[in-house]
Write a structure and sequence with these properties.
367 residues; DNA Polymerase III, Chain A, domain 2; 8-stranded antiparallel β-sheet; alpha+beta; elongated
Length: 367
Amino acid sequence: MKLSISRDQLLKPLQQVCGVVEKRQTLPVLANVLLVVDAGKLSLTGTDLEVELVAKAELNGEFGDGEITVPARKLLDICKSLPASAEIELRMDGQKLVLKSGKSRFTLTTLPANEFPNLEEGIGAFSFTISQKALRKLIEKTSFAMAQQDVRYYLNGMLFEVTGNRLRTVSTDGHRLAMCDAEARTDSSDRMQVIVPRKGVHELARLLTEDDGEVTLTLGTNHIRATVGNVSFTSKLIDGKFPDYERVLPKGGDKIVLANREELRQSLQRASILSNEKYRGIRLQLTPDLLRLQANNPDQEEAEEDVTVEYAGASLEIGFNVQYLMDVLGVLETSTAKITLGDSNSSALLQDADSAAALYVVMPMRL
């Protein structure tokens, strides 16, 4: 195997695939990146057995077909340290890979390509396209509610649900739920659900840009694949049944509060300073046109904030985890937040005042 390539042409795909390569690995080959030269293209692959990223680059200079794996971090650090305009030559010398650029020469250890694991792929059930911007937004608006290392393993990821021409993402940790919809182009009217693990969600988000370019998603029985330009991303799916989230959405809440989103978020932030560090509880006292926030802690310290709101119903006192409320207010988009409440034992439904594209449910706390 041999090739010549500009530093920038190699650096970008290398950075993309190195994101999934773990520093501490049970298998030595998993710390490596797989380089394959075939038909004038270089493909680079990184994996941790759960997520796989493949990035391709065109070769303009001379090349010789072949494949090998080399330490991912070291190759990335060498490329970063070279001048921006540098030309890089890679070639095999026995069992070593030699990298030459200008007056610099590096010799890297290798492991055989046949030791590199390949994520087994089932046949994709169906594919659909969605704009990168829309998918990134879906992930940003719902990923914060994913569980972390919950024994209910199906909560440690995000539900992707395709129905007709809509893609919906849902995540929950059992105490709160986030849900968001966007338009997608599909040929199927069937409803399909897959659960993408936490790491897969974050790696997918890293790939997506804010532009209007498209991403093609293929859903299979065990894997999800996303193709963005020259990069192909594959993640294993969580094998489990996601909770029936529609049953969790509170129905019949008769107390509707409209509040300035940023003012409420800052008031919660200040009050949270004196909340119990372990339970993070905050008490909300709702009266016509006023929301009073109260927090205290075991040291008998107290915080109280008054927020002017639009509300005309009966008085209500209810407790919540203050961090959960701040997380939701941090991802809402409009200047006015709409909060729908029932009684002191019912979950709150939060959303932008003029849109139901994203809905958030937060369970109450006993204080």
